[in-house]
Every structure is written in C-alpha cells, then in structure tokens.
C-alpha cells in the first residue's frame, strides 16, 4: 500500500490562506480516480472568489501521474497531465451527449463539489475523465494557464470566428493575450482595443494587426477604423458600455463577453435587432475541443506570458495580492520549484 502526503493551501471563512497536510492511500482510490503529483498551478481570478471557502484552492494544475484506479484507460503512471475547473461530467445527459460536456448540469466543478481536488497542493486526487495529456512541445508553465484561461478563450473562438473575420479584442490581459495569439495563428485580422497605450508594441508582438488606444474614448467610431468588426471579444474585467463600441460593429456580427461581472448586461436594443447582431455567452471548452486546443498550441508555438511565485504560504499570498491589484502580467504561476 502506497501513501501520498499532500501539502495543501486552502481558503478559509476569513479569507486567510491556510496550509494543511493530509494523507492519501492508493487503496482509497475509486476505480476512475488518479493520484497526481503537482508540478505547478496557474492562478485565475476565480480563485480569488473562492478564498473564503474551506477548500483547496487552484484549478489550473499540471503534474505527473503517480497512481491510477483499475478502471482508468486514458492516462498511465508517469504521464504529464493538466486539469481545469471540471472534475467529472455525467456523460449521459442531453448536454453531454451533444458533446457539450463542459455545460453538464451534473458536473463536479471547482468550488461546487469536492473541496480537496485543487491544484495548490503537492498531491491532487482527480477523476481521470477531465485530465488532459500535455504534449511534449508545451512547457508546464505554458500548459497550466491553458487549463482554464486558455479553454475559456478557445471555446468561443472555435465556435464563432472564421479565418477571414475581423475580430476585435477589448483588453490585453490574462485572456486577451492568449486570444490574440490563437486568432492570429488561425488567420484572422486581430484588432486590439486597450486603455493602455503602452501595450501597443506588445499587442503587435503577440500578433495584432491593428491597435487602438481607447482611453477616454466614448464612441469607437471616432477611431475611424478602415472596416467594421465581425466579432468582438470582451476580455477586460472592467464592464464596458456596449454603446461605446457598437458603432464599429458589422451587420450580423457577434459580441462575446469572456469575463463575468455582477449586475445586468445592457445593449442597444434597436441596432442589435435590426442588424442581426448576437450576444453570445461562453464557458470552458468541452473535452474534445480542449484537447484540440493543446494540439493547436503545440503546433503553433503559442506561449503564455506569466509571473512565477513559490508554492509557499508567502508565495501564494503574494500571487493572490498581485492578481487582485490588477498588476499581474498576465497569468500567475505557483511552483514547487521556483
């Protein structure tokens, strides 16, 4: 019988990060469960929302498989795997049967179910179903943020954007810098809108075809774009008034918010209806699409811009504080070996 000691970093009702150690035994594994030794974990703003819950934080994990249950068929001991928010989906509801298993109403999800499966730990016990083998061409530092941030961006892109579209991105950050790379490698024209003029050279280095600073701009028509926008991805955490950018939207275009905020989403009613526009919500990629995202990333030399922190109480707190401050460029990585 093998035992695995897991050092965990958990939230608490006060919001303080608590370090705790528990022990797993391989005899405790369910037939479809896997023990993973965590190499590192990405940090996402969802983790900020979970800080007041008594649970292991982190949901962008990468690690090495240590043990598998008898029913596991996808991964084997020694594989490098990653995972995001879902731990399992039922596989039998209408949504799963349609191939949209990331929307499964019966899914086990980070923050909603098992409180011990987070990636800010030395050992994670996960269902095999939502583990992804990481291609050799992708580093662990790049792979971790793709598990949630990448999957959140990839899903609406492959569902809505064609290679000949002019795609706007509002905000260069944890999601936006990945969206620029995905879209450019797909052949899209990528038009970046940012309130920070200093990000212009960075946007072009990532693959943008146009950059427009929108600080103090209340009507994007003032930017005098050469052509309208077919798809607009909103990747900023700041709620943008839709009437500001609606003047540059094409007929039959789509607006796709990638971030969430409290309150109502308000859009110009008449233009939305008369020009056949759509406003499309999106969550994570289904499993099939997420595996294809990893293959696409490996094939196209896409990389994550990140900052590394040690996986210690001090390092976790420092990473959380920097993310909350809005100064992270652009994804936080917590490593057992910094």
UniProtKB/TrEMBL annotation:
InterPro entries per record: ADH-like_C, ADH-like_N, ADH_Zn_CS, CAD-like, D-isomer_DH_CS1, GroES-like_sf, NAD(P)-bd_dom_sf
Domain (Alcohol dehydrogenase-like C-terminal) ranges: 174-298
Keywords, ordered alphabetically: Metal-binding, Oxidoreductase, Zinc
PROSITE patterns assigned: ADH_ZINC, D_2_HYDROXYACID_DH_1
Keyword Electron transport set for record: no
Named cofactor requirement(s): Zn(2+)
Positions of the Alcohol dehydrogenase-like N-terminal domain: 31-136
Keyword Oxidoreductase: yes
An example molecular function term from Gene Ontology annotations: zinc ion binding
Pfam families recorded: ADH_N, ADH_zinc_N
Protein family: Belongs to the zinc-containing alcohol dehydrogenase family.
Protein name (database record): NADP-dependent alcohol dehydrogenase
Organism this protein belongs to: Dendrothele bispora (strain CBS 962.96)
